[in-house]
């Protein structure tokens, strides 16, 4: 229980104040324990930070993956559109994790840059595999024309990355939804048979 509370406090404080601006003593105080108690669960500040980062990335990917597990009878188009829709749903349901990951993927502390990049790429591989399955499904369905799958996967992941930035730019749900729909329809019209 204490370990989870430490991770929750760390997620929020690292997200708000940054890595350098967050002291372990602050995290401990928020949870109601003494700073040395953190060392019962984590080696050091970096270990706590990277644990929170990896878990935030994995929770995002698991959220997107639920789409393929729950909706196996969906068309490839619906799966791909569902991925961009679920992305914004994750941001709404998990704002602290979303901001934390975005902040540190874009602006990692210099000494953690390689570690963060490696953790990101490991988590991103799960999403890449899901998108590849949906693209291949679309080709098999005859909905997506034959073309190199990797190009389509890369284009779709770039679409998702762009939409993730748009989510944080626009506070109007209507404007963001319009942008999602327009971007997705443009992608789909470019790949369909």
Automatic annotation (TrEMBL):
Keywords: DNA-binding, Transcription, Transcription regulation. Residues 1-60 form the HTH tetR-type domain. Gene3D superfamilies: Homeodomain-like, Tetracycline Repressor, domain 2. Pfam families: TetR_N. GO terms for molecular function: DNA-binding transcription factor activity; transcription cis-regulatory region binding. Residues 23-42 bind DNA. PANTHER family: HTH-TYPE TRANSCRIPTIONAL REGULATOR RUTR, MYCOFACTOCIN BIOSYNTHESIS TRANSCRIPTIONAL REGULATOR MFTR-RELATED. This is TetR family transcriptional regulator. The lineage of its organism: Bacteria, Bacillati, Bacillota, Bacilli, Bacillales.
């Amino acid at each position: 229980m204490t370990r989870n509370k430490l991770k929750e406090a760390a997620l929020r404080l690292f997200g708000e104040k940054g890595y350098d601006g967050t002291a372990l003593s602050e995290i401990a105080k928020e949870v109601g324990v003494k700073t040395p108690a953190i060392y019962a669960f984590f080696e050091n500040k970096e270990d706590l930070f990277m644990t929170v980062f990896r878990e935030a990335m994995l929770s995002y990917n698991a959220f997107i993956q639920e789409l393929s597990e729950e909706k196996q009878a969906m068309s490839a188009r619906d799966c791909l559109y569902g991925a961009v829709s679920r992305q914004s749903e994750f941001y709404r349901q998990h704002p602290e994790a979303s901001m934390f990951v975005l902040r540190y993927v874009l602006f990692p502390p210099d000494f953690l840059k390689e570690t963060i990049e490696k953790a990101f790429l490991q988590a991103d591989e799960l999403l890449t595999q899901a998108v590849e399955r949906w693209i291949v499904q679309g080709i098999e369905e005859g909905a997506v024309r034959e073309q190199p799958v990797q190009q389509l996967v890369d284009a779709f992941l770039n679409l998702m990355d762009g939409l993730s930035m748009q989510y944080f730019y626009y506070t109007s749900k209507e404007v963001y939804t319009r942008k999602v729909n327009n971007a997705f329809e443009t992608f789909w019209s470019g790949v369909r048979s």
